[in-house]
Amino acid sequence: MAFEGLTERLQNAMTKLRRKPTVSEADLRETMREIRLALLEADVNFKVVKDFVKQVRERASGAEVLKGLNPAQQIVKIVNEELTSTMGTEAVALNKSDKIPTVIMMAGLQGAGKTTTAGKLALKLKNEENARPMFIAADVYRPAAIDQLEQVAKSIDVPVFQLGTDVDPVEIVRQGMQQARDQHNDYVIIDTAGRLQIDEKLMGELVNIADLAKPDEILLVVDAMTGQNAVETAQGFNDQLELTGVILTKLDGDTRGGAALSIRAVTGKPIKFVGQGEKMTDLDVFHPDRMASRILG
Ligand code: GDP
C-alpha cells in the first residue's frame, strides 16, 4: 500500500503527542525529530524535509499553540496543512487553448507509464467533456511503442495519427497537427519518445517538437515508485523544457511517498494528475489536501 511506512510513523508520533496532558517545547522537538526521520525514510528530498520541519516548528512553538486548547490536535492540523502546502495547496486544472485544438505533449522516461497515461487522459477528456481527442505517435525509436499506442487508442476509441518509424518526429507532429485542425479535433495528445535515461538527443527532439507544436500542456509522466529518481527526472526535463505539470503514476503501488511530497517543492511544477492503476479509468485529479489526509491516515 502507498505511504504505508510513512503513515504508520507519522501516526505513531502523533499518538505519542496526544497522550501527553501538556505539550512542552521539548515534546514538540521530539515530535519534529520523529516526523523528520519519517519523511527522510520515505525518501522525501532533504531540503523539502528541512523546510517542512522549520515551517511546522515555527507555527507550533510558542505559547499560542502549546499553551492553548488541545495542543496535540493543533499540531496535527498544522502538519496536515503544511503537507498540503508542500504538495501545492490547490488542484491545478489542465491548461486549455482558446481555439481548438488544445495541444498536450506527454514526456517521460520509458516505463514511467506515458503511453498508458496518454490513454487515460484522452478517456477522461472524452468522458468529462465529450471531447474528440486525437493522438500523434511521435515515438519512432521503438516500433512497439506505436503498436502500444494503437492498442490503447483502440480500446478507448480515439484516432491515432502516425507515419511509422521512418519519418522525423517533428515532421510527424507537423502533419498530425494539420490533420487535427482539418478534422476539428479539440485535443491533440502527442506521445513522445521515452528513453531509459535523459539524453541530449531526446531532449533536443522534445524541444523541437515543443517549438513546433506550441503545446498548452507539457506533462511529464513519472513513476512514483522511483522516489528521488522521479524528482531528479522532473528536474532534468524541467531544465530544458518548460513543463506545465507532472503526472505521478503507480500510486496504487507501495510507493514510500518521496516523489509525491518532493516534486512540487523541488521543481515548482504542479502534480496535475495521479495514476492509480492499470485500467484506463485509473487517473485522478491530484488534490494536495486529500493526499495529505491520505498520508496522515
Ligand atoms: P511508457 O513506456 O512510459 O509509455 O509506459 P507504459 O505506458 O508502457 O507503462 C508501463 C507499465 O506501467 C505498463 O505495464 C502500465 O500498465 C503500467 N502503469 C502505468 N500507469 C500505472 C499506474 O498508475 N498504476 C499501475 N499499477 N501501473 C501503471
TrEMBL record:
GO terms for cellular component: signal recognition particle. Part of the signal recognition particle protein translocation system, which is composed of SRP and FtsY. It catalyses: GTP + H2O = GDP + phosphate + H(+). It comes from Paucilactobacillus wasatchensis. Residues 100-278 form the AAA+ ATPase domain. This is Signal recognition particle protein. Residues 101-297 form the SRP54-type proteins GTP-binding domain. Residues 2-87 form the Signal recognition particle SRP54 helical bundle domain. GTP binds at residues 108-115, 191-195, 249-252. One of its GO terms (biological process) is SRP-dependent cotranslational protein targeting to membrane. Its EC number is 3.6.5.4. Its main location: cytoplasm. The lineage of its organism: Bacteria, Bacillati, Bacillota, Bacilli, Lactobacillales. The chain holds residues 1 to 297 of 470 of the full protein. Composed of three domains: the N-terminal N domain, which is responsible for interactions with the ribosome, the central G domain, which binds GTP, and the C-terminal M domain, which binds the RNA and the signal sequence of the RNC. Involved in targeting and insertion of nascent membrane proteins into the cytoplasmic membrane. Binds to the hydrophobic signal sequence of the ribosome-nascent chain (RNC) as it emerges from the ribosomes. The SRP-RNC complex is then targeted to the cytoplasmic membrane where it interacts with the SRP receptor FtsY. One of its GO terms (molecular function) is GTPase activity. Keywords: Cytoplasm, GTP-binding, Hydrolase, Nucleotide-binding, Ribonucleoprotein, RNA-binding, Signal recognition particle. Belongs to the GTP-binding SRP family. SRP54 subfamily. It is found in: Cytoplasm.
